Each structure stands twice: as structure tokens, then as C-alpha cells.
Amino acid sequence: MFTHKEHIFFDLDHTIWDFDRNAKETLQDLYVKYKFEDLCGDADPHHFITAYTSNNHRLWGLYHHNQIDKPTLRRLRFEDTFTELGIDPNLFPWNFEEEYLAVCPNKTNLFPNAHETLTYLKERYTLHLISNGFQEACERKLAGSQLADYFETITISEIVGINKPDARIFQHALQVGKANLDTSIMIGDNLDADVRGAQNFGMDAIYFNPLLAEVPSDVPHSITDLKELQRLF
Fold it and tell me: What domains sit in the chain, N to C, each tagged with a CATH number?
């Protein structure tokens, strides 16, 4: 279907690197280490992790549109989680956050068929990465998961100073990658930042939808497993 394409641009978190799974493993360990069962009144970290995941996703949406900055995102995702669980946010131990940031990016859980699919595509296309993640964390994720060598160029919003869905980051990535708009395509999990960001810039996009969410009518291409890309390309 997309054999006329030459350049494939990928998102990283939630598309290749399984953010939620890696975060869950980290939070489970830290929940026990910091004895959050006493604060939360629950030996099972499920409710804490669920609340954190929801708040983190919401705050990243604000960050994408420059409505909050990096320190605010990192502070509120835990403060808001405590508040949602009925716990005084002032009781949150900030060593927990620092240790989370030290441990989580070193996790290496990827979505199924990631290496297989990237290997297949790299033999046929020029691959690039565009991430709204933070520089240090992105670099550690790429190195630890042995992903960096797949990509000809890596565009990180914190370095560029522009976040997806802003068209300027897609323009920057095309220029750095020496790619043409017509022969380029974006693949990502975030409808706002990745898919519509690319579409509004005039670039084709594929929605990565492993959770089987409803696909909007204005999104013509979607996959639920990275391996499907081997059929499309």
C-alpha cells in the first residue's frame, strides 16, 4: 500500500517503547520500596498506577501544546495522583520521583514485533524518529533497548524547542532527514500529536492502536500490531 514511500518517521513512547508497561514495572517496585501501602491504605499498587497513568497521559497532552512546562509535568503527575486518591500531595516523597526517573528509562520492554519490524523496514526504507520525550530519557531508552541504530535521524522536541503536533517539528525533521513530504509517512499512537499533527502538515500518517480504541473517521490508516507494517510496506 505504501511502497511509494521512502522515509518512515516513528514516534517512540507508546509506539515502539512500551511506556505504560515500563512505568508499571517501575512503579510497582517503588510502591513497595517507599511503603506506599501505608499512605494509600492499599497493599495492591493497582489503583495508584491507574491514577498515575491517567494523570500522566492528560498532562502530556497539555505539554504537547505548551500549556505546561517540563518541571510542572513532572510535579503534577504525582501530586495530582495523590490528590485523586484522597492523599495530601505534600506527603509525596520526591526521592520517589527522582528514582522513578533514574529507573524507568532503563527498562527495555518494547511492543511486540518491534525489532523484527524495524529490521524489515530498515532494509527497504530510511527510518527516522520524532519524539516529544525528554532528551536524557529518550537517549537512555534508545540505547538500552538497542533502537538507535535503526534510525537515520532522531528528532527530540526538547532539543528542537518545538513539540508535536506543531507543524514546524515535522518540517524540521524532514529537513534534517533530507526527505520529501510526498514520500514520507508518520507512525504513532497519539491521535493529536502524531497522526493529526502529521496530517495537518500534509504528511500521511498511520495510527498505532494496540489498545483497540475507536478509530476516528478522519484517520484512514491504523494498525494494532507493528508487524502489520511488514504487510503495508
Answer: 7-17+110-232 (3.40.50.1000), 19-106 (1.10.150.240)
